[in-house]
Known about the structure:
Number of strands: 8
CATH superfamily of the largest domain: Alpha/Beta hydrolase fold, catalytic domain
Structural class: alpha/beta
Oligomer: single chain
CATH topology of the largest domain: Rossmann fold
Radius of gyration: 19 Å
Shape: globular
Strand order of the largest sheet: 1-2-4-3-5-6-7-8
CATH architecture of the largest domain: 3-Layer(aba) Sandwich
Amino acid sequence: MPLVAHSHYQPPFYQFNGHLQTIVPSLWRTVPDVTYQRERLELPDGDFLDLDWSRLPEMRPTDGLAIVSHGLEGDASRPYVRGMVRALNQAGFDALAWNYRSCGGEMNRLLRSYHLGDTEDLDTVLRHALATDRYHRAYLLGFSAGGNVTLKYLGEDANRVPGEVERAAVFSVPTDLRASSMHIGRPQNQVYMRRFLKSLRQKIRDKAAQNPGEVDLEGLEALRNFPQFDDKYTAPMHGFDSADAYYQYASSGRYLSGIRVPTLLVNAQNDPFLPASCFPREVAAQSPYVFLETPAAGGHVGFAESNGEYYSERRAVEFLTAEVPG
């Protein structure tokens, strides 16, 4: 019954609510001491992914690789990704932070982009890395949207997951996308909603310029929430009939019972993005593989500590390296 009974996370005293715990690390954290080597991975459909590697020095050989998946409209340069990469390197793992289609600093080639239920690209990245024959152990980590993709990948078809994948750890995951999309649209969350929509609208404009006549820009500026945006753009661009059909397919909550790899899911109770349905206590209570930890605080992809460290990084390394997961 992997329900983590007690979380040891305590936020800094000045980050006294979920909004501060979300915003302060996002805006003011820097992680300068991570150096990436970029690789462009060409895909069978004619598109590409940009992969950012952080490998240990040659004098510290490793057979373990950790793959980090970022959040919605994020990328490998975000502080929470770089911080996790640094922590993984310090723990003795090579790390690979991959950028989703359109997120690596250059627009992808196809009309489609990425979505929160697309596990094919994660599988391609993982198999590409394992094909180097350098790694006998692999670990998957994800934040928010990347956590949703990771959980769905692990649970939708356990037989597809390579045997090298030993454990996973994900944070701040909207396991119920429909409920989450409504939750973040509440008035108190408009600062986040506006920021996401600003980035998403620009990408739609870029797609329209890249694909003349194929993208309808009418009404773009009037969209005010995720259901509206996903119904008009995300769903049809990726083969779904509606936003609801997309949410139903992509929500990782429906796949959790299929996970067969020890997996840590940490969702803060004061996360402004997550409604009650994103705390799958019943599934975790019945699964020997899904370890659910629900600290009272942490915000969304926050988890800063008073000593300047980050609980998400410390907890992930602890879980991935423990003799017995938990």
